[in-house]
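Hello everyone,

My group is preparing for a crystallization screen and wants a predicted model to guide construct design. The compound we'll soak is zinc ion. Before spending weeks at the bench, it would help to have a computed complex in hand. I've included the protein sequence and the ligand's SMILES below. Output in structure-token form would be ideal because that's what our pipeline reads.
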Amino acid sequence: MIPKSRLIAAVLILAALAGAPPGARAVDPKTSKKIDAEIEKVRAEVVKIRRFIHMNPELGNREVETARLIASKLQPLGFEVRTGVAKTGVVAVLRGGQPGPAIAVRADMDALPVQEATGLPYKSLNPGVMHACGHDVHSSVVLGTALVLSALKTGLKGSVTFLFQPAEEGAPEGEEGGAELMVREGALDSPPVSAVFGFHVWPEPVGQVLFAAGNVTAAADSFNITVKGRSAHGARPQEGVDAVVIAAEIVTALQTVVSRATDPTDPAVLTVGTIAGGSRRNIIADRVVLEGTVRTLSETNQKKIRGLMESVVRNITGIYGAGYEFEYKPGNPSVFNNPELAAAMTPTLVRLLGKDKVVEWKPQMIAEDFAFLARKAPGFYFFLGVRGPGQPATPLHSPGFNPDEKAIPLGMRILSHLLIDALEGQSAIAGSGSVF
Ligand SMILES: [Zn+2]
Ligand SMILES: [Zn+2]
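Reply:
Good plan to model first. Here are the tokens for the complex, ready for your pipeline.
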């Protein structure tokens, strides 16, 4: 839940943004020019940093060199830098020269266990590890934005917390990590932020931004179902309890949970991703394990599906006299874009990109741990197009994923404007004093 003090600050920021006459909160032309000039100054360096990170990808909770590089760029510029947050995370606060609220922006830093197949001159030097989800771009765009805003520090009304987060793709087995741990370790607390921004690259054309007001991504839960039968000779099934046949029935019956028992206008996905059991062709299997994922947008569906799944497993195993284990683990909640904040930020995006390039999107059933940040403070999360002209739409997580680097300066420009507009909007109502 969002704490009260944060809520008050957030309400003020939103009221100010929503109440401002059109254009009033927009970055003034002088500042806008300065942003462009600063981007021009640092863009080559930022692209170089991106390529370095791309060549040296690190898995979740192991982003040691990536974090060191990021911290080393921000420390000399007067950012208040904390390292080792949520294992390897970096939190860097830029305090503006003018009073105002505090807001945050987040980049994730981790790579994936994928063997790169792009053939780029700056491809991964780390075998079997690749920035196939574009977190190298996120880190460099947010770092670049930090460099730009640092140059505009004197006129900045409030503070911006830059979050460089480990392990968005999940922490290694047995470890904690990611946005949830960042929040627990106080990444959004000093100063307490009243809005948090984030984005993800997406294989849509460069120049396009996509977002949804409300749910952006799904809650992503995981489950393990173990069917416990009894072994027997494959030719004497009457003496055993066949876990394979029971598991097959469970897989089929689970398909009806979403299709027959949930509201079709409230999307949900139930996928059994693995099935494993049995030891030999002529032995009745005594054990089958099913693993899968459930994606939902509403808590109603999440609760209902979990309950129905267990009932399917209990009843089907019951018919055949088998036992079962049902493990259900809630994962990332749904990323929820604060509708007022999304509405307040839309004009900034339209001004920068043009109306036709700002696409209001449907929620995606993917998972994103930004959700934990957006639960702590009102959040705004968008997708940044990174597909170059004539490039195929290579999906995220694939070995050929190759975002167009033109999206890097554009991403910096978008974030710089969003953050300044958000600070300006709040300052307009708070007068010269901070609301904190
Ligand atoms: Zn990913
Ligand atoms: Zn990602």
